Amino acid sequence: MLSQDMIERILDRASEKGADFAEVFEEERIQQETQITQDEIEECQNAKECGIGIRLFKDKTRYYAYTNNRSEEAIFQLVSDLTKAMKGDCMARQRLQEKKIYKMGSETQVVSNKSLKERIAPARRAVAAGMSQDEIVRMRVKLTDMEQLVQIANTEGVYVQDNRVKTRLYIAAYAQNGTDVQSGYYGPGAMRGHEYYDQIDVEAAAREAARAAKVILHAKPCRGGQMPVVVANGFGGLLFHEACGHSLESTVIARGSSEFCGLLGKKVASDVVTLVDDGSIAGEWGSLHVDDEGTPTQKNVLIENGILKSYMVDKLDGLRAGLKPTGSARRQNYRHYPVARMTNTYIAPGKSTPEEIISSTEKGIYVKSINGGSVDPSTGDFNFNASECYMIQNGKLSEPVRGVTLIGNGGTILKAVDMVADDFELRQGFCYASSGALYIGAGQPTIRVRNMTVGGIE
């Protein structure tokens, strides 16, 4: 890593050249990914990459460039080109944006702390457990182990180092009936090392993926319409991550292009909704000790009992919007500048039980798993694909259905949540946006939206 003296000289040089703010972000990352099926090892990647990103602000405008050449000459040339671009030097800007002399490929080399046999043992156990289930014709298991050391310093006196360790087991099971093949998945992960695989029930996770695949295989096509929607605990929280969370990030707030602009202190949801983003939860997949600007992560209550309390804010968009940073600035790696992004986002537990919610729903749909979808943060309009779903008839779960799409508006469904259960669970996934692919948690207890558009067959 760069010495503190070297970092101070970089920051001093940027300040001398007129930057209002300067930051150095340095990263060393080791990542191992192994994917296997019942037949073979499909993929095995072991890599190390190192790089530095330098970010300047001038009059609330961002200037950013990166390099994996950590020589003093290369770094100070990068600072020189950035400060010239900041002053309107078109040639310097062209060097940064077009020649890509500072945008080289990452350093990649083989690394290994464990033997391949040791590393894939949990995956082998998961494959065996899944293949033991009826109708399962294929299993695919991916193990991800990552260790990232970052060093962050800026002209406001921040100087921190953070070591981040992530581990995840992603299991996909495929069930077949004739020519029809359907899949189910389960993907536990944590901010822990390889020992995490010994702390979870790998076989149970594989059986859960297999169970979901078999349910979907025999599900009937869903008939759409307007109806109550009950969303199960766990990764059902992805609905609110996408439909509401992105609209509460300062990236869109500062531009005035969010449906939640200017509504702090106003009622934006029903009384039973409390929405939280918390990157400080010990050991969780979406957690960090400090964000990618060096600000300690914290619990940010975004909506409390229906009232909008806070946004997720990074430094630059905080300056633009007159808001204080909330430890929410994130980036995939040194090639990206940080912006406000979610960490572990969830609906807080309520006072109902899942059984009460289902029994009080005469007719509707129960969504156990959401795959993903899209949202327009400026309007909150969303469209999600759901996988494992069941119809609710006379207050009871009935036949499974598939081909379910949830269509609506984030601000609207927040007001339409009328029951929240006490069975909170947080699940693990990834979020893809402007600063890259990030580790995130999404969770909730079982909730009911009293009316939503459900797409299915005509």
UniProtKB/TrEMBL annotation:
Domain Metalloprotease TldD/E N-terminal, residue spans: 22-82
One GO cellular component term: cytosol
GO BP, sorted A to Z: proteolysis
Domain Metalloprotease TldD/E C-terminal: residue ranges: 225-456
A molecular-function term among this protein's GO annotations: metallopeptidase activity
Domain Metalloprotease TldD/E central: 113-214
Pfam annotation, one family: PmbA_TldD_2nd
Keyword field: Hydrolase, Metalloprotease, Protease
Family under the similarity heading: Belongs to the peptidase U62 family.
PANTHER family in the cross-refs: METALLOPROTEASE TLDD (PTHR30624:SF4), UNCHARACTERIZED PROTEIN TLDD AND PMBA (PTHR30624)
Protein name per its UniProtKB record: TldD/PmbA family protein
Lineage: Bacteria, Bacillati, Bacillota, Clostridia, Lachnospirales
